[in-house]
Amino acid sequence: MSARQRTWIFVAVALVCVLAIWLPFGFGMTGLIEEWQELGNFTVDGPVFFANIVRPEADALRPMSHLPFAAAYVLGPNSLVSWHLLLMLALVVKGCASGQLAYRATGSFAVALVAAALIVLYPADTMQLSFRALHINWSLSLALLACSIYVYAWDRRRPGVAVVAAAAGLLAILVYEVALTCFVIPFLVVFARDGLRGLLSGLRDRLALLWVWVTAAALYLVYAIWMSGRVATYQASLISGRSLGSLFTQTLPQLFTIGESRAILGGWFDAAQILASEYRSLVYPVVAALVLAGLVWAGSRKAALVDAPAQGSRMARLARLAGIGIALIAAGYLPYLSSPAHMAISQRTYLFASFGAVLLWTALLLGMAFVSRLLAASTAVALLLLGLGAQLVQFEHYARIADVQRNLLRGIVGNFDGNMDGKTLIVVDGSNYLGQTWVFLPVNLRLALEYFYQHRLNGIEICRAPSMEWIWQDVNLLPQRGICSEAETEWVFHTTEEPAEASGKRIAKDRAIVIRIGADGHIVSDPRLDAYRTELQSGRSKLATRYRNVLAPPTWDHRAAIFGSEGPGHSYHGSFGRWWSMDIPMRGYGWRETEWEVSSRFHHVASAWQTGTTAGLYFDLAPSAATYRLHVKFAMFASDRVRSAVHIALNDAPVECRWTSYRECEGEVDARSLRKVGNAIEFTAPTEPNYYDLALRLVSFSLVPDESSR
């Protein structure tokens, strides 16, 4: 089989993986967080392909991080189809390049085809399928492509090709600096194939190729050192004055307890639970995995198990490959040890580690194949099914958040024509979704609207109803909570530290544009804007085109057959997230952003702090019994005093929640106090001045029918 034929088969396998992920969802997913910042700024200021000088601390060491976003915008400024296509292409490139590298390392085309699929489906990271990872995906794909091209140049002793590889590798680092860790991959691949003696001999014979590759990395390091002396970089802020030596000494255990364990086993542990609990029907993932497995079999059935001569014994080669995999996991995760916030999540932190994990599993599969091909094939199919199942749920998670954002944006854009005339837009949100990281903090809401209106907007305020909680952001763009109130002639906004009679921020009603969102997310239409709405539905302006292309409900959506409908059920379980770092936007007030606690190597718990004396959550339920049982689980309390004073109410009816353990309580709820739509559970507890003025940290609550009352 020629090298070109192998390449096309690798492309086919990676492409089938990508199509299997996208097929149930189509191109309906929109931006989520940073994507709206890129879209809004590109629309008003023009696309930025190089460093954004407005925020040098964020972009200084990754000056081309905006390039993939800018390319997506230029290719399709009035829709997000180009964003989907570029993300899909990045995953195909990643799969093809990984397959080529795995083939060079193992000499087994069959196992390399599995590796090409696994790198796309690997379940350790939970950010691969959102547009906010577009630059990271392209950085990793370019880095792996560069490594693959360099190994090709190494084998054929072609310095000119090595220059192309080095240029691609340098571009990958300039997009996202963690790609620098990939520069060791070509040498490790040669070591896996040829052994230490073969690697050293090759280095002596290929000094020109070596200098080309090393020069690319050195150029970036010189730039990074020079730039770090000129500006306070984002990366330096993570270190906070600590030496790198002391930092990594303190965090080195987490490299293994969090990084290696998640990359090797933890992601598969979650994937198995996801497959068992998240699906209404397993027909689609099973059929898709079998089709993928069939493609791997068809592509490799005429190839020998190992069609390249191995240096040394089989066991020695497998040991080298497994050791390289473990080392590359560590290298890919190592940069994130500088940030406790990154170690607490699985968003982006395992993308670069996944290639090492794939090589490790490749070694295990190859070892199984030497013993029993049936065992290896069965394990490979199981891994493909688990990986695809996890990726589909990840996509569904982001698509569901996009649905919430789309509905809210469609209502706002459909009832506000973008003409502010120096006024302030006040969004009174009865849905209680707005004002959290995953559903439009104020700055993100403004930038999203600027993408549609194509000009800068004045201040935007978010006021949740009926709690009248004001969501604002401080100078560091961190979300804060205050109080908003509507007086006869003005709106008043003040922080929780200010007394009610303080001046605060006052906006006269004749200087305010108010949009009121109902509890169901619906906005009562202003008849004065009927002509404007007609223009949105059929006009040719950029605003109308973007409205239809981005905010119209997706025409291709087959999620319900796979995951079930989202309508209210007879029971309800509310939490801030089921799977590590896949935060569930909650409808409520009085809570901080979701936090994740690694309670064990394979178990991660989402929770949120109550910030005031009262906090609530809204949910829908279809009551089916006379009595329901309420179960509440807390992570911790600011003090024992807080715990002893906790009170819970459902739809304003007090619930006697009896403690069954220090952190859990249960109670009975009369179903007559429940509603199908718009139920509210409220937690009342004093805050603790000696613990950041916090009260309690909630994990989850559930309502299930009492079977004896049916």
Mean pLDDT over all positions = 91
- Give the C-alpha Rg: 27 Å
Strand content: 15-25%
Number of domains: 3
Helix content: 40-55%
Could you tell me the number of beta strands?
19
Unreliable spans are none
Number of helices: 22
* Cα shape: globular
Main structural class? alpha+beta
Largest sheet: 7 strands, mixed
Q: Provide the spatial order of strands within the biggest beta sheet.
A: 6-5-4-3-2-1-7
Distance between the termini: 67 Å
3D structure, described in words:
With 710 residues, the chain is an alpha+beta fold. It folds into 3 domains: 3-229 and 242-400, no CATH class; 416-524, no CATH class; 572-709, Sandwich (Jelly Rolls). Helix content is 49%, strand content 15%. It has 22 helices and 19 strands. Strands 6-5-4-3-2-1-7 form a 7-stranded mixed sheet, covered by helices on one side. Strands 8, 10, 11, 13, 16, 17 and 19 form a 7-stranded antiparallel sheet that branches. The chain has a 5-stranded antiparallel sheet with strand order 9-12-18-14-15, with no helix packed on it. Helix 6 runs antiparallel to helix 16 (354-371) and helix 12 (244-277) crosses helix 14 (314-333). The radius of gyration is 27 Å and the shape is globular.
